[in-house]
Amino acid sequence: MREREAARRRCHEAEFEAFVAGAAGRLLHTATLLTAEPAAANPRAQQLLAAALASTYAHWAGLRGEDPYDRTRQDLVARFARGAWRDWHLWRLRQRLHLLHRRPDVAPLETVTPRERLVMVLRLYEGVAEEQTAAQLGLPLQRVRTLCNRAVSQLYEAHLDARTKPRQSPPEPQQPHGTRGPRGNPVASHPKGPQDPQPDARAPRAVVAP
Known about the structure:
2 domains; RNA_pol_sigma_r3/r4-like; WH-like_DNA-bd_sf; DNA-binding transcription factor activity; RNA_pol_sigma70_r4
């Protein structure tokens, strides 16, 4: 009996490891989109994913045909949604600071609220239907549609602003050292060497006979 239970546990572990190897990358990207962190530094997204994977592993034996990816994503979304109210206050504070200091390094996804970001990621990145998104988040269907459209519109406007923003011109090349003119402007020095003879204005001109 113990051997059978141990063999079943090893089988579950192998199945779970195979699932993580195939799905962890996409799930981490989904979590990173939700937290609006940069891909190279996303500790909060990693924490959300680790907690969701641990929950999936704890219930692995009871999935009974349920898609483990959907199960993990639902847990991931639920954990992010529980902190959406706190994240909204932090988002409002960051928005005010960004407006005051006009930071140029704001990530595009930071310009939308956490709830708008959540709906947009589920609908557009994960491809979850509106009805399923509304049921999972406990929101009316029209509210889901409004949040998604608003997020897309704001991101589009941010993209247009970034494209129309004037670029900084490169610095002008420094003039070579030399003498300065009467107004202090640098005068380029001539290279050393033989110079072309200049015509003498006082020399008589040759007269060509008719």
